Every structure is written in structure tokens, then in C-alpha cells.
TrEMBL record:
The keyword Signal does not apply. Pfam families: GNVR, Wzz. GO terms for cellular component: plasma membrane. Residues 142-194 form the Tyrosine-protein kinase G-rich domain. It is found in: Cell membrane. Belongs to the CpsC/CapA family. Signal peptide: none annotated. The chain crosses the membrane at residues 21-40, 174-195. It comes from Bacillus thermotolerans (Quasibacillus thermotolerans). It comes from the Bacteria. Its main location: membrane. This is Tyrosine-protein kinase transmembrane modulator EpsC. PANTHER family: FERRIC ENTEROBACTIN TRANSPORT PROTEIN FEPE, TYROSINE-PROTEIN KINASE.
Amino acid sequence: MEETISLRELSEALKKRIKMILFIAFSAALVSGLISYFLLTPVYETSTQLLVNQAKEDQQIYNPSEVQTNLQLINTYNVIIKSPAILDKVIENLDLSMTTSQLNGLITVQSEQDSQVVNVSVQHEDPTMAADIANEIAHVFETEIVNIMNVDNVSILAPAEVAEGMGPVKPQPLLNIAIALVVGLMAGVGLAFLLEYLDNTIKTEQDVEKMLDLPVLGSVTTIEAEARGKSVNFPERKADVRGEKVGS
């Protein structure tokens, strides 16, 4: 006999284990908050902007084809900025105690859409160090790109600075708590449905019909005494020596 589950049964399963679901959700949010505020190290981000052009010819002030060529080369510049040719010199100049691969993981290079502006962002636990690394990358790139691609028109539009009252970019405790709360609710609901599915005890007449595939002819209800534990007093009866009951 095929079993079907109605929405009412699902809602009853959730109501029956609502405390467990809420406990799991709030426990996950609490753990996420504790980890975000007390265990994870804050990470700060600074960025600098570069404008990269090809070498200009004296007789041409503006050449549309040259601009289009520069736009097509932006992705190449992005790769060069994160290459060992640039990062090795940055590590040497700043005397950083990290490898090229580790420094590469701290850097994000992006270009504005349809522009020759390149954004170099650096994330570090120390905001001052993040700004120093970003600025040094810009200076090294400005110097080395002349030899690499014969580009001698690199301008630093905005150097990286540490703003007053600068906050970390990660972790984001409130976002982490919200995500943990949602995940905890989903896990609690899933666990409630799993426990309900594994529960094969007989509770109702319908359970008997499903398990035995037989109709229920009758049921015996439970007769409880008065509420709050009060007992029911029945009238006493006395019996004579012949065993006949007489009224009190």
C-alpha cells in the first residue's frame, strides 16, 4: 500500500519538534557569532588605481584605434601585475616574509568596464601593510612595464591609503550569523522530517490500518481521573456474611 504524506502531517511533524529546530538554528547562529567575533582575524583591504596607455606618437594626440588596442591589452596587464616579474621585486623592496604565491593570493586585479583603468586591491591583516603593498605594486609595475611591453605611459590615479576608522572587509559577523541561522533552520527541519520518517511506532488508528492493512472496528479510549492528580471517590459498599451487597 503506497504511503502518502499530507501537508497537515508535515506541519504537525514540524510543530512536534519545533523546539529542536529552533535550538539547532540558534545554536548555529551563536557558534557562528562567537567564531566571527573572537576567533577569525580581521582582514583589511586597500586599493590603488592605474591608467595604462601605449607609448604615444608626437604627431597624434588622440587615436581611436590606439585606445581600442589598449582596452584589448588590459587583461594582459592584469596578468603581468600578478606575475613573479612584479611580485618578486615587491617582496624584495618591502622585505616581506612571504612567497610569491602567498602574495598573489592577497591581490585582486580588476579593470573597469570599457576603460583603461586598472584597480589593484590588497587584503591584509594590517591595513598599513595592505596600503604599502598596493602602492609598491603600482610603482614596480610602472617601472617594469617599460621593459616588458614597451609601455611608458602609466599613471597612478589614486594611491592606496588607510582611511580613518577603516573597518575590516572580512569576516562579516552579521552576514555569517544570518547564514548560520538559515542553515541551522534547514538542518533542523531536515532532521525533524528524518526523525518523523524513522518513527515507526503506532499512534493512531490510521497507523494500524497502514501496517496491518485491516480496517479498525473499534478503539478503547483512555479514561482519566479529574485533572491535577485528584482521585475519584466511589461510594463504598458493604457485604453481609452471605456475600450480598447492601448500600452504605
